[in-house]
């Protein structure tokens, strides 16, 4: 597989320059956009040609953009596909709120940030494990199906749109019904080994996943909480 492409979306040229340098040093191809409109246009046309090779595998997306804000750009990207999106926010306290909105970002980076940490976060989302070939392609439970190959989830006959991270989180739990996963185990298997960050990020993503599945934390149908430990999938195979 050739070099992977990352799109950096930020209205500050200095930030784009630094991130480009660090990402290219790690072997990524890097494209830049200074506003939300340019970022969306890039996905329609690519860097000069609408080719599969030109499609980014990940987007570093600043929230505070001068035209469309980053959240609106994220909504439109999610409506079009499941590219990995890492939101960049200027305030740490925003992260919990943003995840709670269920916008579907795969990770969150807070300014000021270490460029090395940003590269590590990009690598982490790109190396999330997928099901081995000998695993069932479709997992079926009470009212819920998880199609690994198509990366689709259907609940009670209606399709549920998840971010790439939310899908991987659900897939991990659904593959092992009743098994309890600690937050650290979830981070290592979904975010990737060596993930740098607070384990509580697992909690906010579980809340977002539950919201999308219409699951009630107090009376869960699919994802149960094991207090002081972590989470487990409750659905029995149909």
Fold and architecture overview:
There is one protein chain. This protein is of the alpha/beta class and 238 residues long. The chain has 2 domains: 5-126, 3-Layer(aba) Sandwich (Rossmann fold); 138-233, Winged helix-like DNA-binding domain superfamily/Winged helix DNA-binding domain (Arc Repressor Mutant, subunit A), CATH 1.10.10. The protein has 8 helices and 12 strands. It has a 5-stranded parallel sheet, with helices on both faces.
Offer a quick outline of the entry.
The protein has 238 residues and is of the alpha/beta class. It is built from eight helices and twelve strands.
Strand and helix layout:
Elements: E1 5-9, H1 13-25, E2 29-33, H2 36-45, E3 58-62, H3 70-80, E4 84-89, H4 94-100, E5 107-110, H5 115-126, E6 138-141, E7 144-147, E8 152-155, E9 158-160, H6 164-174, E10 181-182, H7 183-191, H8 201-213, E11 223-226, E12 230-233
Parallel strand pairs: 1-2, 1-3, 3-4, 4-5
Antiparallel strand pairs: 6-7, 7-8, 8-9, 10-12, 11-12
Helix pairs in contact: 1-5, 2-3, 6-7, 6-8
């Amino acid at each position: 597989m050739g070099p992977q492409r990352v799109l950096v979306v930020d209205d500050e040229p200095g930030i784009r320059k630094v991130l480009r340098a660090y990402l290219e040093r790690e072997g990524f191809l890097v494209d830049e956009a200074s506003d939300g409109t340019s970022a969306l246009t890039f996905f329609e046309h690519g860097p000069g040609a609408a080719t599969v090779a030109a499609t980014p595998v990940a987007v570093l997306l600043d929230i505070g953009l001068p035209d469309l804000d980053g959240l609106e750009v994220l909504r439109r990207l999610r409506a079009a596909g499941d590219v990995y999106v890492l939101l960049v926010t200027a305030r740490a306290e925003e992260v919990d709120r943003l995840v709670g909105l269920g916008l579907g970002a795969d990770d969150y980076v807070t300014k000021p940030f270490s460029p090395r940490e940003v590269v590590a976060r990009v690598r982490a989302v790109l190396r999330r494990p997928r099901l081995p070939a000998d695993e069932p392609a479709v997992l079926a439970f009470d009212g819920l199906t998880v199609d690994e190959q198509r990366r689709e989830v259907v609940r009670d006959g209606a399709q549920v749109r998840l971010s790439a991270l939310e899908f991987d989180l659900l897939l991990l739990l659904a593959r092992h019904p009743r098994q309890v996963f600690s937050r650290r185990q979830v981070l290592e298997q979904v975010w990737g080994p060596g993930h740098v960050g607070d384990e509580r990020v697992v909690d906010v993503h579980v809340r977002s996943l539950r919201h999308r599945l219409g699951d009630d934390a107090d009376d869960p149908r699919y994802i149960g909480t094991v207090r002081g430990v972590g989470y487990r999938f409750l659905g029995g195979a149909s």
